[in-house]
Write a structure and sequence with these properties.
The chain is of the alpha+beta class. It has three helices and three strands; from the N terminus they run ββαβαα.
Length: 106
């Protein structure tokens, strides 16, 4: 955690942990504290930092739960209905088929 004064206001800069960089897609998070007073900036930075730490903890818990799960969605086209040569499906039919397909896969 670092506080930077950029003239008009203070900014909080938090380094994203290495294991969470792929999730946040950045190495640092910059948050404007919207104050010129350093004491107020310190108080606001602690509140924001606690929220960020909670988010980091939550993301790590999600990663640990889904670490070993092989989550892949594959479509089985053999199980899906297909139009006959002389019959075409309407939009309502297509939505119904898609819903039925999703329900059988779930």
């Amino acid at each position: 955690m670092h506080l930077y004064n950029r003239g008009s206001s203070y900014y909080l800069v938090v380094n994203v942990p290495c294991d969470l960089i792929p999730i946040y897609r950045k190495k640092q998070i910059w948050v404007s504290l919207r104050t010129k007073d350093k004491n107020i900036a310190n108080i606001r930075s602690l509140m924001i930092l606690s929220k960020l730490e909670y988010q980091f903890l939550t993301e790590r818990q999600k990663m640990s739960v889904f670490k070993n799960a092989n989550i892949r969605f594959t479509l089985d086209y053999n199980g899906m209905p297909h139009p006959k040569d002389s019959f075409t499906y309407g939009e309502a039919d297509i939505e119904s088929f898609a819903l039925d397909f999703c329900m059988t896969k779930a």
